[in-house]
C-alpha cells in the first residue's frame, strides 16, 4: 500500500475499528430528580407582553422524562441563573435540585 500511495496524506486507515465503544445509557436511570439535562434553544425573537424573548432554557429529568422550559430575553449567565432559581424554587413544580446536571458549553 505504501508503494501505491507513497507518503500521501490520504493513505487508508489500516487499523481495525474498535470492538467496544462505551456509551452512556440514560434508560438505566430510574431515580427521579437525580440526573437532569439542560440546554438553551434560540428563538426567532418572539414578542409576548411587550418583551422580546430570544431563547428558552429547557430542563429535562432523565428518569421521568419531565420537561420544563423558561423563556429568556438574553443568554447572559445572570439571567440563566435566575431562570434556574425560578424553576427549581417554585413549590408547584415537581422538579427539585438535581445531584447531577448535564449541559453543554452554550
UniProtKB/TrEMBL annotation:
<dbReference type="InterPro" id="IPR012337">
    <property type="entry name" value="RNaseH-like_sf"/>
</dbReference>
<dbReference type="InterPro" id="IPR036397">
    <property type="entry name" value="RNaseH_sf"/>
</dbReference>
<feature type="domain" description="Integrase catalytic">
    <location>
        <begin position="28"/>
        <end position="106"/>
    </location>
</feature>
<protein>
    <recommendedName>
        <fullName>Integrase catalytic domain-containing protein</fullName>
    </recommendedName>
</protein>
<dbReference type="GO" id="GO:0015074">
    <property type="term" value="P:DNA integration"/>
</dbReference>
<dbReference type="GO" id="GO:0005634">
    <property type="term" value="C:nucleus"/>
</dbReference>
<dbReference type="GO" id="GO:0003676">
    <property type="term" value="F:nucleic acid binding"/>
</dbReference>
<dbReference type="InterPro" id="IPR001584">
    <property type="entry name" value="Integrase_cat-core"/>
</dbReference>
Amino acid at each position: 500500500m505504501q508503494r501505491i500511495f507513497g507518503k500521501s496524506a490520504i493513505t487508508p486507515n489500516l487499523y481495525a475499528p474498535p470492538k467496544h465503544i462505551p456509551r452512556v445509557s440514560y434508560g438505566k436511570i430510574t431515580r427521579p430528580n437525580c440526573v437532569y439535562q439542560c440546554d438553551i434553544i434560540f428563538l426567532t425573537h418572539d414578542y409576548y407582553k411587550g418583551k422580546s424573548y430570544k431563547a428558552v432554557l429547557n430542563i429535562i429529568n432523565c428518569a421521568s422524562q419531565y420537561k420544563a422550559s423558561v423563556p429568556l430575553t438574553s443568554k447572559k449567565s445572570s439571567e440563566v441563573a435566575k431562570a434556574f432559581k425560578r424553576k427549581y424554587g417554585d413549590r408547584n413544580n415537581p422538579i427539585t435540585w438535581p445531584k447531577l446536571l448535564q449541559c453543554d458549553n452554550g
